[in-house]
């Protein structure tokens, strides 16, 4: 029986730059690192950064795409301001969605797109 999502893998052709981005700009801590792989432990889920060789056609298609990965925050406006000040590139300011929450998309140095999300208050 499946219990939970354990890990999400993302890929980069410039491993060091992308790793530095997640540590210095986003504030993630490294749980494990080896040659070409870095694991960030995030409250029950791992984000695994893997280096790929962009000269290989199969690998090139794995980098610089919408990931579908969302990071939750309780205060999207302040998180957006803090991450923007650290050099995180957002595609736009946080926007309130018709379902009551707010979202903003950002890219890592490899061009992978992530979502910052604030869920509406529970009644």
TrEMBL record:
- What are the alphabetically sorted keywords of the record? Dioxygenase, Oxidoreductase
One Gene Ontology term of the molecular function aspect: dioxygenase activity
Does the record bear Oxidoreductase in its keywords? yes
Residue stretches spanning the membrane:
none
Name the Gene3D superfamilies on file: 2,3-Dihydroxybiphenyl 1,2-Dioxygenase, domain 1
Q: Note the SUPFAM superfamilies from the entry.
A: Glyoxalase/Bleomycin resistance protein/Dihydroxybiphenyl dioxygenase
Q: Which InterPro entries match?
A: Glyas_Bleomycin-R_OHBP_Dase (IPR029068), Glyas_Fos-R_dOase_dom (IPR004360), VOC_core (IPR037523)
A Pfam cross-reference name: Glyoxalase
The entry's protein name is: Glyoxalase/bleomycin resistance protein/dioxygenase
**Lineage per the UniProt record:** Bacteria, Pseudomonadati, Pseudomonadota, Alphaproteobacteria, Rhodospirillales
């Amino acid at each position: 029986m499946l219990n939970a999502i354990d890990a999400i893998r993302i890929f980069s052709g410039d491993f060091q730059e992308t790793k530095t981005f997640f540590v210095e700009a986003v504030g993630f801590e490294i749980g494990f690192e080896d040659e070409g792989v870095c694991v960030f432990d995030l409250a029950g889920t791992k984000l695994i950064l893997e280096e790929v060789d962009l000269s290989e056609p199969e690998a090139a298609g794995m980098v610089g795409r919408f990931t579908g990965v969302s990071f939750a925050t309780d205060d999207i406006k302040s998180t957006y301001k803090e991450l923007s000040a650290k050099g995180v590139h957002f595609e736009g300011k946080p926007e309130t969605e018709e379902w009551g929450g707010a979202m903003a998309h950002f890219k890592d140095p490899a061009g992978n797109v992530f979502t910052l999300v604030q869920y509406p208050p529970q009644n």
